[in-house]
Design brief:
six-stranded mixed sheet, 25% helix, alpha+beta
């Protein structure tokens, strides 16, 4: 069994914020009959504290000796039902997970091949070739599954792994016996069917399914370029979902699958009847026009919470004739982590990484995003941060929420 305790505080003085968090932890421990000996800790803090990251980490290490610490800076931090956005704050979570169930990694101590089944990754977005680094770390895990995000700061862009790092990436890998369930919320409503990119140059998409891209976009939006105001209004909220050629673009519910990355639509080229997107557009990939709005974001966040709860609460053991390696392969194709044993039926703790462009205002009010999570999951220990990019599977996303829950430890 593994247990989790989470706390959060907002204060202009980081030492006072840490003291308040420590008091909350002690209050939660006071009523317990069983000892709680933490081994792994998460520490997220807003960029108001970025210049004092070393002091914060040292304070946490002194208060909880022997704990291995991971974390990152964000423009906001998340807790159960609460967000602290653009204000000095920190959120902390402790677990008594057995030391053999996890391993920290960083530039000083890279993750060895097959050392972990899945991994939480924090990275500095200013580092060149982040997508390639994620592919490399993904390849070092047994399942290929990563979750996490890019540090977001107007000061130092730092991340933690028993030390404070700028540049590169760090995190913690988990053994297969650690129960994990993870989902990505794109928060977008698809406006078109997935279409194959059949002609493109760099980030310029010229043809989709053999047809000029721009007329298809305008037809999907129901506008014409001559209707300038209506066209601009529709285009401002239009994005594209990019999916690898063999990936699942839309799931059964008509929402984006795990392989889809949402990117901005950044320009039109009427002369070539083309559209420009904020990413490379490889020929053979699938492209879906989509819209991001409050209702779509709320609905999709509820969807992933429902999927997670259903998987955790109704999980059953695999029939014995199914080889474990076969089931793992099926899970890998679906872009999901696989555990040989079923989750024990409840959520013990959670990590949530959301885009810095989301948060309460995008969902209808202060802390609305985190309140949706608490309503859907219950008041489970949860921490997270508002990132400069989100990580799931082996991909770097934008404007998404990545929710990962810990469901216990397989025997």
């Amino acid at each position: 069994m593994q247990d989790f305790i989470a706390a959060h505080a907002s204060h202009a003085d980081p030492a006072q914020a840490m003291s308040q968090v420590a008091g909350q932890v002690q209050a939660q421990l006071a009523g317990r009959s069983q000892p709680f000996l933490p081994s792994l800790g998460w520490l997220y803090f807003t960029d108001h504290f970025a210049d004092r990251a070393e002091r914060l980490l040292a304070d946490a290490q002194a208060r909880w000796p022997g704990v291995a610490w991971v974390g990152a800076v964000g423009v906001g931090v998340a807790a159960s039902g609460v967000e602290h956005f653009d204000t000095p704050a920190l959120a902390l979570m402790l677990s008594d997970m057995p030391a053999g169930d996890f391993c920290l990694f960083s530039g000083r101590q890279p993750l060895a091949p097959e050392q972990a089944f899945a991994a939480l990754v924090h990275a500095d977005g200013n580092t060149p070739d982040i997508p390639e680094l994620l592919q490399e770390v993904s390849g070092r895990t047994a399942s290929g599954y990563l979750f996490g995000g890019l540090a977001a700061s107007r000061k130092r862009s730092v991340h933690l792994a028993n030390g404070v790092f700028e540049g590169g990436l760090s995190g913690v890998g988990f053994a297969q016996r650690v129960g994990l369930v993870s989902r990505v919320s794109q928060g977008c409503l698809p406006l078109s069917p997935p279409r194959r990119i059949t002609a493109a140059e760099g980030n310029i998409v010229r043809r989709l399914d053999g047809q000029p891209a721009l007329p298809l976009l305008l037809a999907d939006l129901g506008v014409r370029l001559e209707q300038r105001e209506a066209a601009l209004a529709a285009l401002r909220t239009t994005l594209v979902g990019l999916t690898d050629g063999d990936g699942l673009a839309l799931n059964r519910g008509g929402q984006f699958g795990a392989d889809t990355r949402v990117r901005h639509l950044i320009g039109l080229d009427p002369a070539r009847q083309a559209v420009a997107i904020a990413d490379h557009a490889p020929v053979g990939h699938q492209l879906t026009f989509c819209r991001r709005d409050r209702e779509a974001a709320r609905r999709d966040l509820v969807r992933i919470c429902t999927e997670i709860r259903d998987e955790v609460e109704t999980a059953v053991a695999l029939p014995s004739p199914v080889p474990a390696e076969g089931a793992a392969a099926v899970a890998a194709l679906a872009g999901l982590p696989y555990a040989a044993e079923p989750p024990p039926g409840r959520i013990h703790g959670a990590v949530y990484v959301s885009c810095s462009g989301r948060g309460g205002p995008h969902f209808g009010g202060p802390s609305a995003e985190l309140q949706i999570l608490r309503h859907a999951l219950g008041d489970v220990p949860l921490v997270g941060f508002f990132a400069g990019g989100e990580i799931a599977r082996r991909h770097l996303y934008g404007y998404t929420g990545v929710l990962t829950v810990f469901t216990g430890r397989a025997a």
